Amino acid sequence: MTKATDPIEEPELIYIPDEEGNEEEFEVVMKFEVDNSDKKYMLVVPTESDSEEEDEVYAFRYEEEEDDLKLYTIEDEEEWNMVEETFNTLLAEQEEEDSK
Residue 33 in contact with residue 39, Cβ under 8 Å? Predict the structure, then answer.
């Protein structure tokens, strides 16, 4: 599994088209692979937010083919619960490391 992106590193940015086809910029905050599976997941936050509130985190399953990145929405509730649980676990581990 991959831990959360180190804040010292240059942020990884991706562009995702919205409903109108406009490219929106997102920062990748975490990538991880599920054990015993070939599925990879990515969690992103928008780089520009319209509100002062916390950024919403978006999760996608992804595949990389050479220079091509394909994102898939997570529609299965069981898969979503697994992604959410993994994210929370990795985030807690990262916060624990940061507090040392």
Answer: yes
